[in-house]
Amino acid sequence: MASSRLKYLSLGVLVFQTTSLVLTMRYSRTLQAEGPRYLASSAVVVAEVMKILTCVLLVFKEHSYSMRALNSILRQEIAHKPIETLKLAIPSGIYTLQNNLLYVALSNLDAATYQVTYQLKILTTALFSVSMLGRRLGVYQWLSLLILMAGVALVQWPSESAPAPEKEALSTGSQFVGVTAVLVACCSSGFAGVYFEKILKESKQSVWVRNIQLGMFGLVFGLFGMLAYDGERVKESGMFQDSLIWRIGLPRRPRSCLCPSVSVCLLFLQALGGLVIAAVIKYADNILKGFATSLSIILSTLISYFWLQDFDPTGVFFLGAILVIVATFLYGYESKPSPNPSRA
Ligand code: C5P
Fold first, then answer.
1. Which residues form the signal peptide (predicted)?
2. What is the pLDDT of residues 64-114, one digit of tens each?
3. Mean pLDDT of all residues in the chain?
């Protein structure tokens, strides 16, 4: 069946994209002492523009490469339906808020607490899927989600041989701020994903048109964010801080600067992520997305061990990996859940 093929294809591409993104990020860390020279806030803007342009191309392809059809679909579905378009401002605004909350959380928590606590989003996503989409999960499926959460938490548990990150001792106050930020981000992740799923599955509209609408708001919020956080630096040295794209193809690069091909690769993978997540939400669902990203955490860690040799797998890691795999099979085990009204 075509829809089942698209479901597994999109999930497979998500595993590939997430694994490649994590590996490229790790690899970029081994290349340089400093962080990338470009601004994170301008990278968000570039990624949104790339996502919108790719989605426009996909809509163009969907309409047999007719400029006239593309023009009319964009006008009819986006410009002439402001209420429908505005609906996408909600997940887009929430995702922007979420990205900022995660930044607050990372600045106030150690990486392990952050990663482990953020896995609660697996449960919030399931709860929102049940309450907003009327999805019904069997006992085995709830159990498998709990096992998945525990498994991912263990996989990300720091090994004792890993050097302790040099970080000032975190006060109880900042721990509280960090944990609160992660918990709110877990709720926002579940809600925004399921809200987007509801919009996609309740209308016949193309997923790429929906993604253009989402990306337009993402771009506006991203531009505001860039001006608010880095307005002065952008005014001084431009959006790309004299790096990134401008350096592509230049034979010389300063030693402290992230290799242009790696930074461009990171940008592409991030933009691809937005597209693949949209496809996964459309053809599979948010809960299966959680399984795909959990499997790619294991995959990227293992590849990292063989390739970058910056990780020593411990017994805890293997226990976590086994739990994730068991959870994945257990979720599929009860293969006939009650009919799902949200699925067309
Ligand atoms: O952690 P979580 O899975 O909720 O993160 C989803 C991420 O995917 C967010 O950063 C959001 O900006 C991005 N996204 C996207 N395009 C979509 C859906 C999500 O870029 N259509």
1. none
2. 999 999 999 999 999 999 999 999 999 999 999 998 899 889 888 887 788
3. 85
Place of tokens 């461009």: 264
Report residues whose beta carbon is within 6 angstroms of any ligand 1 atom.
95, 99, 189, 193, 196, 211, 214, 274, 277-278
Per-residue pLDDT reduced to its tens digit, 26-39 = 787 666 545 555 67
ipTM of the shown complex = 0.96
Alpha helices for 203-259 (secondary structure H): 207-237
Place of tokens 């449960």: 123
Ligand 1: residue of 45, 52, 95 to mutate (most ligand atoms within 8 A of CB) is 95
**Domain-wise residue ranges, the chain:** 1-157+170-246+257-333
Spell out the residues 6+ positions from residue 270 whose beta carbon is closer than 8 angstroms to its own. 21, 43, 47
Check: CB of residue 324 under 8 Å from CB of residue 146. Answer: no
Of the candidates 41, 6, 181, 174, the residue with the CA atom closest to the CA atom of residue 104: 181
Contact 340, 138 (CB under 8 A): no
Q: Report CA-CA distances (Å) from 328 to 29, 220, 278, 282.
A: 31, 38, 21, 20
| Separation of CA 275 from chain center | 10
CA distance 90 to 96: 10
Ligand 1 atom with least separation from CA of 92: 12
| Per-residue pLDDT, 1 | 67
How many angstroms separate the CA atoms of 300 and 156, rounded? 12
d(CA 105, ligand 1 centre) in Å: 17
Tens of pLDDT along 86-99? 999 999 999 999 98
